Amino acid sequence: MADPLEPLTRLPGVAADADAVREALTRVHNHRANRRGWPATSAEAALRAARASASLDGGAAELPASGPVTDPVLAGALRVADALAGLQPAWRSAPGQALARLHVLAAADLPGVGDDDLGRPRRDPGVGERLDALAGLVTGGTSVPAPVLVAVVHGELLALAPFPTATGVVARAAARLTAVATGLDPRGLAVPEVGHYRAADEYRAAAAAFATGEVEGLGRWFAHCAQAWQVGAREGLGIAEAAAA
What we know:
single chain
């Protein structure tokens, strides 16, 4: 069967951007601090990712000087960050289950969210079908370059908003899971969330453009994601440099 995402690789700039992302991430993984000390740098990257992701959804970006995290969005993003490594097997074999767990973690403290709302996708027409299609792509239904698949997962979840809350945190976490699962960023050393945060207006505009399904909109989203991942790679290099100092 034809690869459903293959036409995306022929959009202007997409192939070159994918190569640039891979090269940037290779530099991060080859840094001397990440050869043996990657667990520490990966943990710092995950923390920065959670803070940036929470801020994009209107939550606090800073951790309290003392005491527990009280901001519900940041608390959820931190729980998600802590759980990502353990969710890798589910993401590779049963992405729907992993998404449900991400939502439980991200939305548990949000106002007005009851236990019956956690981890349950909306039942609106088409939601289940699109989630199934996305799961098929994640579990081997495409052979496009990893940066393209990561962008599709991220953009589709933002557009579909399968859960009534915590859409952004869940979508960005799923993108990280995909980057690790595909080998694009296998140790989670980059912080693309910082790239999205620093270009927040364009992030939202490009995501809305992707949701239209039009060629120009798709190209705009892929260009933004490629730039965000390169910013995230530079953030990862900064973490590694600090660790090596």
